Request: fold
Amino acid sequence: MTRKTFLKKLFQLAVVGSFPALYSWQVEPFWVEFVERKLPIRNLPVNLEGKILMQISDLHVGNRFDWNFLIESFHKAEKFNPDFVVYTGDFVNHGTLEEQNDLKIVMEEAVYGNLGTFGILGNHDYGPGWKDIELSRSICRILNSYGIEMLNNEQNNRYGINFIGFEDLCSPNFDPLKVMKDLDQSKANLVLCHNPDVCDKDVWNGYQGWILSGHTHGGQCRIPGVITPILPVKNKKYVSGEIDLQDGRMLYINRAIGHSYQVRFMVRPEITVFTLTKA
Reply:
């Protein structure tokens, strides 16, 4: 092999070897996937069958990626004309004043449901250490001012669907029994819970139905069936997508639209588009 051929092959190998790193840094983090699926809900009113419920999770507005991507994704999401939109936590990354101001810019372009828009807090909305209650209330005030009804261990019945929202598992305000003690199984209930680890807690009071979560980001980088190296939950079965909890509860984990860090590999950012059906 001549020196020229050797250098050419070395260059080709370098290009091929750098492609996965470049792809996971500059391509996949900004390649949103709209996952369309059915959501069968018990006791769903007939007039809500076929309506669209959109789940958006983990915006992570901050300085770790260009959050203008979120606004661009919102504009694409509006084409689905959702009837309900739910935001399942982690609106900011650290909650600094700059991030709160950037959140206002992002939420100016937020997606709203024609019939209702709800949100819950995630661990990052409580600042570093997940303990800053005043920050979490500030985040709620911002979101409420932009038309997102925050559910803090509360429920709200809107047009026949009873939305139940938990505060985050890691926060000082985590108290799902505050709302679950009044659970009415005759309603069309839907639980919003940021951290799927709550599914393993004794707080459900016989609940039968769907739980919409986020938090995991799907691991952000994974080789399906082989390895998901970074997964911020105790129960490592809680990665992403639909999980049957085998007791009448069904869990759906959204892969997140934002990122803790600007890197994704085989875990595209997700906005979930559910079509409501009667179970």
